[in-house]
Write a structure and sequence with these properties.
Elements lengths: L3 H14 L4 E17 L2 E19 L2 E8 L4 H14 L12 H5 L3 H9 L13 H16 L2 E18 L4 E17 L5 E8 L6 H17 L3 E2 L4 E7 L1 H15 L2 H5 L24 E4 L33 E5 L2 E2 L6 H7 L10 E4 L13 H6 L3 E5 L2 E8 L4 E6 L3 E5 L2 E6 L2 E5 L1 H7 L2 E2 L3 E3 L11 E3 L2 E11 L4
Parallel strand pairs: 7-17, 8-13, 12-21
Antiparallel strand pairs: 1-2, 1-4, 2-3, 4-5, 5-6, 8-22, 9-10, 9-12, 10-11, 13-16, 14-15, 15-18, 16-17, 18-22, 19-22, 20-21
Length: 477
Amino acid sequence: MIEAQAVVEAALAAASGAGADGCCVIVVESSHADVRFAVNRTTTNGVVRDRTVTVVCMMGQTAGVARRSGVVSVEQMVSAALTDARTAPPADDAFTLIEGMAAARGGRASAAAAVSYGHSPPETDLTVLGGVLSGLSGAFERAGRRDTAVAGFAEYDLVTTYMGLSTGVRLAYTQPTGALNLVGRSVDGARTAWAGTGGGPDQMTASSFAALEDELWRRLEWSGTMRSLDAGRYEVIMPPSAVADMMGSLCFYGLSGREAEDGRTVFARDGGGTRLGEQLSTVPFTLYSDPMEPGIECIPFAEFSRSSSDESVFDNGLPLGRIDWIRDGHLANLRHHRAGAARSGVDVAPYIDNLVLRGGDGDGAGAAGPTVDDMVARTEHGLLLTCLWYIREVDPATMLLTGLTRDGVYVVEDGAVVGAANNFRFNESPVDLLARATEVGGSVRALGRELGEYLNRTVMPPLRIPDFNMSTVSQAS
């Protein structure tokens, strides 16, 4: 395949020659390595490389999009995008394309992205998972001695995004993304546990694998005693992984400014408008996204292959900086593309591919504050809820979510974990959880069990919820 930059330049030239008023070309080069395992043996491993090309052509107030994978004909893609643009109605997100100087003013991240445009995309291979692979053989042996089967996967991606605009903007960024998931199940199926982590190469080492394996064995030992509990409200300690799934759901389902203005989300104000500025919690929570957040850095410019209520192909190349969604317990921003923000008279707030929740411990405070174990030690009666699954939105007006517990609901009594409980279906709102939290721990790197596939880069604290709603008992095991 020809170089990604050559694809960008050829498509921009073809669009100009075909009469497009403006054009954006995005080439995404991905390099993926993974290893998967089940029943104490490796099942598959390998490396995959792929390329996706998106061409967006503008004609006046309309935009057309063509998207293809692999080797492509840029002339055909430009023709398809122009045909789409000529037949489309005027776009309500239409806006002037990002200019070169606007991109340059994006700070250090955008300046580095401009320099990176001239570089070839890096590739990964299975050596990045060497620490995991070396740890697996010992883990399989230990699992066999414990009459336990270990399953899961480790994966690592390098995704390089090249972007060119007809205005002269040229940007590129390489995003590393790693994840390690371990599941242990006793051979009789009575005991099961999960542990997972996300991160870069530093989380794929033998020592990181060993630490995660130790946590898996600890949770399986907790499951040696089973308790049958009824549905109801329980005091619950949510580790950062469970909090990541609930806050990720808030990010995906609840932060659209357009939908709030239309009265369709929890952040719509009764009688019209949004709840911007309202206090959501007495705890001074700050929920934010920042492409420069240490340890979870992400792409520092907007990259959209389609438009939606709060994302716009016209915003491609927009420099990204920190955005506070909730600040000191108050709703601070909702997602808006530039056209929507201009209509509503609010700040532009595009999607950013990471999420941080802090409970007043301050920027850069890291893991300062109580840990999950500290919170367990102060619990008289409660549950430790390690893993959420199959989360779905029930009521957008309250952001009520339903889901299941999975692979680990543990009973806490007198400051210690004394066993495992049956699974439950829960009904909870992440907005209400923030309002009802009675204790917040230090924020650390976390991977949600369900949403970690879509939102890998999160920093979350553990939370204590005094009355978590376990609506029904689940027969799942």
